[in-house]
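Many introductory courses stop at the sequence. We go one step further.
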Amino acid sequence: MPDPQLNDDDYEMLASFRYTLRKFLAFSETAARRDGLTPRQHQALLGIRSMQTRGTASISDLASFLILQHNSTVELVDRLVASGLVLRSTDPDDGRRVLLEVTNLGEKLLANLSYTHLDELELIGPELRRLLARIQRYRRGKSDKAQVKIPSNTKSY
C-alpha cells in the first residue's frame, strides 16, 4: 500500500536528485579512467591529499574515508605506491601506524582531475542547488505539517 505522506512529486524529486548525483559519479569515473586511475584510486588520492592539509593520513584514516575494510585499503595503497603516486612510511610516534603522502606525480595527476571535476561541478551546480533547495522546502513543509498545534484555550500538562 502506498504511503499517503508521499506523492508523485516526492518520488520525482528524489529520482532527479539521485540521477544528477549518478551523472556526476559517472563523469568522475570516466575522468579517472581517462587519466589511468581506477575511480577508487582517484578517491584514495583525494582522501589522502585532503587529510594531509589537516596533518597526517594513515591507512586507518583512508579506510574510514573510503568506507573499506583495512586489508582492502592496504591492497589499494600497495598499488598506489607501486605506481609512484603515494609514499608510505611508519609513524615515528607510533610504529604500528602507517602514514601516507601523495607524491609529486600523484599531486600533478590529482590536480588535473580536480580541475576537471571543479569545472563539471560548476556546470551542474545550478541543477544541484535547485534540487537541494526543493528538498529543503519539502522537508520544512513536512516538519511544519507534523507539528501539533495546541489550541490556545487548551491547558498544557
